[in-house]
Amino acid sequence: MDILAAVVNEAKGPFSLETVQLDAPGAGEALVRILGVGLCHTDLVARDQAMPIRLPAVLGHEGAGVVVAVGSGVTKVAPGDKVVLSFSSCGACPRCEDGDSAYCMTGPALNYAGRRKDGTTTMTRQGQRLSSPFFGQSSFASHVLTGERNMVKVADDLPVELLGPLGCGIQTGAGAVLRSFDCPPGSSLLVTGAGSVGLAAVMAAALRGLSTIIVSDPMASRRDLALELGATHVIDPAAEAVEVAVRRILPDGCDFSLDTTGVGDVMDAAIRAMRPRGVFGLVGVPRDPRSPTPGIGSAVLMLGHTIRGIIEGDSEPDQFIPELLSHYRAGRFPFDRLIRTYPFDAINEAVEDQHHGACIKAVLLLPDTTP
Length: 371
Prior knowledge:
The chain has 371 residues and is of the alpha/beta class. It has eleven helices and 18 strands. Strands 3, 5, 6, 9, 10, 17 and 18 form a seven-stranded mixed β-sheet that branches. Strands 13-12-11-14-15-16 form a six-stranded parallel β-sheet, with helices on both faces. The mean pLDDT is 94.
């Protein structure tokens, strides 16, 4: 079928809205009409080829919408169901069987290769293969094919068009606190970077009852919002060194530190702000994966720090996304305050606004009727 998709044709190039062709759902696949899709930093890392997915490609991995049709063997959802799409995992490897599907042993191939397991793509353009699916979805499109494990069914009365970021960025930040760190009530946390991932961590820390929640970000508006969402202190890193500011608040340093920036100097400062045996979490994807973080080695050796790489907040989407939605319904996890919506054809404007800090989390809305 013909669909509308935002195609990346060249490294660092703009997204181009084009009519492309989408396969019919095969065994284990569902056809989903996308109503809203979040714009994530990882999409831009892939566009810029720091994550070397083959171009041309259709990216997007924070999709949400309505199931249109299902292929053979799909029992989890039915046509008409509202769903949030998340990352791909096989469900059969030792990591998946242990409940660690974010670390699925075939996860890199399933999420980043831009191909099905058999080497085919879900989308083509006049016979040319387009890298798809990305994260098992490629949801910068009016319709996608996705696997059964990618989908989380949600209630009809929820604003499904806004829920896509729960499938990646929001669950990553919240999961870092509630799953990866499992921060105990009364502990302390430093978050560097007050984007959607960092602010989701702040909301989760407030939910968990941490005593001290410190946020460092150069933008005053984001620091103000962090305070509204539960941060107890904020730092302007342009005015004061992060480690100095943290130790003014917590002389012994913080228990946990979460970096969402992927910037080496920021990570070094965050590590220096921790108490001995502190836990440091990395979720920021660096634009240059070769960028050094010279303080990590000595910190681990001299102070016994634990360094945690965190993927998707160590979450199982089928359990964690409903948990977050229950907190949202109760007014305890207002992730929608991070969102600014854009029409799908304003995707390049949304990229610029998010890059320059004019919005925290851009969500692209698809029209009700699409090609």
